[in-house]
């Protein structure tokens, strides 16, 4: 689509009751990120209240009409995905605006290939819209869905703001406080707690005419209109905050000024989380085992593990709406009453089939159905079995087949490939979940974002305890594959040559491991943790992996980068198969404040509790190598970090090294365990001591809140 164009969704697909909107961009520097937001607008083009603005601190609507699904890695970057159940959108909502904003002075012009896509519930792309002319904007309206004559249409907007989230939100009746937060003034709230937004108190904007709804006033390529003094109103306490709302003619100037915020008490109901440190046990000694809702000690066979794990997961999905919706929204399921079943017998020729589970969601008289095939304990999915379930789903009019195993999907693609008959009217989508993703979503809800009541939090805690039990078989990616040993041996004796398919298999396993580490660490921290892709959009994932495999054959190293939200740099992980060493590192840009010696002293002081063997290297202009030493030697003499020739310091690189595990599995001496430990050690003992990247974007839930 081109900017300003519009199209009816019904002309693109027969089933657009639920759609997934994806916003994407890429960055060759690897430092490209933005936050998505969704605004529900009334006939006057304004939000009606706190329930109408969705962003990083308010991610889902209680009715399931809107849910921010977070970032999903793709072949050349990542996408932010938003689930919209258009059948559940309240009648008062006329328009759904999809936007994104950057922070810390970053601009969209630093990113490449800004784009929006909309897919139906089966994952089939319906439309796409690219923005090629981004420059100094720090916020963008990508597009909007709007009602017209009883149906939903989409308009491509592509409008930018230089004033960030504050300027964008002000035009729609919200004022955003971008100043640093002072947590001492009030308790920290759960990250998806409803935000306090006050509806507009000024004259309403004109109602848009058919297919010609006016865009908000603030554009980077248009002069701002003269401002009139807005009417004052009480404001709320966090991002976003309530304020008076300028009319369309005054919005552009008002959004450019920093809003004045007056705090007032919260009225939002707090959600329940579970503290990481539990209350003192009443057991007489450590041998007493706490009773569990889902015991795993008696599970012995693989078949029993699969049956038990499926039943446990599906029952919790049905009983905890936030959790069930979080897992199924990305698969195109509507928001509605959910029921789950296990071991259902379905006809299939002369041999009936019994999928491990069935999920059914009912809304407005329509039923969405997904068949579930589960594997545990590292057992692979069988393509012929999944193919049979896809055929059954197509014949019976079911919408999806969901596979669930320890394996981690790459680029959002299914782990196994099946043939889907596109000639059938009913489209069947094939989706994959890893047990690590399930645990991640459960942990995010009970540790950081909260659920509606304590019983739901306890159910999720019991599910999480079951998944972590060694007898459950739900342990995530645990094996580097059969190619690991011959590739290591080939690197040792220098017989591995470029083009070897076994090297490609190792690269794929490495990417799965890094993705799993991101999920695990993100669930523990309550922050976004994503693999960094330094590539341009459109790069073929298979070609990229083939190039990385050739590089592995030549250099003998696997390399990855992780971006942890709120940290001052990118965490790099390098596995050198020749030396059997793992290296974790982070490059810190120089803050340019104070004299070089003062900066060196400040860094060494921050790292007072870091390991003595931490390696610090001074980064200089150009390719000139700078001074380097261990923290143990630098503590008494930080000045040793300064270059003797007075060259300009651009930053410092911190790194730790440890021995690499040899085995292909996750045993104590295995490679996977050693990578996990290396990342955890660097984060816990180095990153946590550094000054965080300035950010006001996410608030954490206090441990033990509302339990």
Q: Would you write up a description of this structure?
A:
The protein contains 13 helices and 23 strands. The longest helix has 25 residues, at 501-525. A hairpin with a 4-residue loop joins strand 21 and strand 22 (625-630). A seven-stranded antiparallel beta sheet has the order 17-18-19-20-23-21-22. By secondary structure, the protein is an alpha+beta fold. It has helices at residues 164-170, 251-256, 302-319, 321-328, 383-396, 435-449, 454-468, 484-492, 501-525, 541-555, 596-606, 631-634, 671-685, and strands spanning 6-8, 18-26, 35-41, 53-54, 66-74, 77-85, 95-101, 112-120, 125-131, 139-148, 151-161, 337-342, 357-363, 366-374, 400-405, 429-434, 529-531, 557-564, 570-576, 581-589, 615-620, 625-630, 649-659. The relative contact order is 0.10.
What's the short version?
The protein is an alpha+beta fold and 707 residues long. It is built from 13 helices and 23 strands.
Record the SSE blueprint.
Elements: E1 6-8, E2 18-26, E3 35-41, E4 53-54, E5 66-74, E6 77-85, E7 95-101, E8 112-120, E9 125-131, E10 139-148, E11 151-161, H1 164-170, H2 251-256, H3 302-319, H4 321-328, E12 337-342, E13 357-363, E14 366-374, H5 383-396, E15 400-405, E16 429-434, H6 435-449, H7 454-468, H8 484-492, H9 501-525, E17 529-531, H10 541-555, E18 557-564, E19 570-576, E20 581-589, H11 596-606, E21 615-620, E22 625-630, H12 631-634, E23 649-659, H13 671-685
Parallel strand pairs: 14-15, 15-16
Antiparallel strand pairs: 1-11, 2-6, 2-8, 3-4, 3-7, 5-6, 7-10, 8-9, 10-11, 12-13, 13-14, 17-18, 18-19, 19-20, 20-23, 21-22, 21-23
Helix pairs in contact: 3-4, 3-7, 4-6, 6-7, 6-9, 9-10
């Amino acid at each position: 689509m081109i900017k300003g164009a519009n199209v009816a969704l019904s002309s693109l697909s027969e089933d657009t009751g639920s759609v997934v909107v994806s916003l994407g961009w890429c960055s060759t520097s690897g430092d490209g990120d933005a936050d998505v937001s969704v605004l529900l607008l009334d006939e006057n083009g304004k939000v009606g209240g706190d329930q109408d603005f969705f962003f990083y601190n308010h991610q889902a609507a209680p009715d399931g009409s809107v849910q921010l699904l977070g970032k999903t890695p793709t072949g050349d970057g990542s996408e932010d995905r938003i689930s919209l159940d258009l059948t559940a959108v309240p009648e008062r909502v006329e328009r759904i605006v999809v936007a994104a904003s950057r922070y810390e002075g970053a601009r969209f012009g630093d990113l490449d290939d800004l784009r929006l896509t909309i897919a139906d519930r089966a994952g089939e792309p319906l439309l796409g819209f690219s923005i090629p002319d981004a420059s100094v904007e720090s916020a963008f309206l990508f597009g909007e869905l709007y009602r017209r004559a009883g149906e939903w249409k989409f308009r491509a907007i592509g409008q930018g703001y230089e004033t960030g989230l504050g300027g964008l939100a002000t035009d729609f009746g919200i004022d955003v406080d971008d100043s640093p937060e002072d947590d001492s003034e009030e308790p920290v709230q759960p990250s998806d707690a409803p935000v306090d937004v006050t509806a507009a108190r000024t004259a309403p904007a004109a109602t848009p005419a058919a297919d010609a709804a006016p865009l908000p006033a603030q554009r980077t390529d248009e002069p701002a209109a003269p401002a009139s003094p807005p009417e004052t109103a009480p404001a709320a306490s966090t991002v976003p905050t309530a304020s008076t709302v300028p009319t369309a003619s005054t919005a552009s100037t008002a959004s450019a000024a920093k809003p004045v915020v007056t705090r007032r008490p919260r009225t939002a109901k707090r959600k329940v989380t579970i503290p990481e440190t539990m209350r003192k046990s009443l057991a007489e000694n450590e041998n007493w085992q706490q009773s569990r809702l889902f015991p795993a000690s008696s599970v012995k066979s693989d078949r029993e593990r699969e049956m038990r794990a499926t039943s446990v997961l599906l029952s919790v999905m049905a009983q905890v709406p936030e959790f069930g919706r979080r897992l199924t929204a990305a698969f195109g399921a509507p928001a509605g009453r959910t029921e789950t079943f296990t071991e259902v017998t379905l006809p299939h020729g002369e041999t009936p089939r019994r999928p491990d589970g069935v999920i059914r969601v009912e809304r407005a008289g329509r039923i969405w159905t997904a068949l579930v095939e589960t594997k545990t304990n590292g057992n692979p999915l069988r393509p012929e079995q999944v193919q049979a379930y896809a055929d059954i789903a197509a014949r019976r009019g079911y919408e999806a087949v969901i596979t669930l195993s320890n394996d981690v999907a790459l680029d959002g693609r299914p782990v196994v490939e099946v043939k889907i008959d596109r000639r059938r009217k009913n489209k069947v989508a094939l989706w994959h979940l890893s047990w690590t993703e399930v645990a991640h979503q459960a942990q995010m809800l009970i540790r950081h974002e909260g659920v509606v009541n304590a019983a739901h939090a306890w159910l999720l805690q019991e599910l999480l305890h079951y998944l972590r039990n060694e007898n459950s078989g739900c342990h995530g990616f645990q094996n580097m594959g059969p190619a690991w040993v011959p590739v290591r041996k080939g690197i040792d004796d220098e017989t591995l040559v470029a083009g070897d398919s076994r090297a490609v298999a190792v690269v794929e396993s490495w990417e799965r491991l890094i993705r799993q580490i991101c999920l695990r660490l993100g669930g523990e921290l309550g922050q976004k943790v994503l693999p960094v892709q330094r590539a341009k959009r459109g790069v073929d994932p298979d070609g990229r992996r083939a190039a990385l495999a050739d590089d592995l054959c030549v250099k003998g190293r696997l390399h990855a980068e992780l971006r942890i939200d709120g940290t001052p740099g990118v965490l790099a992980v390098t596995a050198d198969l020749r030396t059997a060493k793992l290296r974790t590192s982070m490059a810190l840009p120089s803050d340019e404040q104070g004299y070089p010696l003062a900066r060196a002293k400040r860094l060494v002081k921050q790292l007072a509790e870091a390991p003595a063997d931490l390696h610090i290297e001074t980064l200089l202009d150009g390719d000139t190598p700078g001074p380097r030493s261990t923290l143990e030697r630098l503590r008494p003499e930080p000045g040793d970090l300064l270059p003797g020739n007075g060259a300009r310091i651009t930053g410092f690189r911190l790194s730790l090294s440890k021995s690499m595990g040899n085995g292909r599995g996750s045993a104590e001496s295995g490679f996977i365990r050693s990578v996990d430990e290396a990342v955890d050690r660097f984060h816990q003992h180095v990153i946590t001591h550094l000054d965080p990247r300035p950010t006001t974007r996410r608030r954490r839930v206090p441990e033990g809140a509302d339990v």
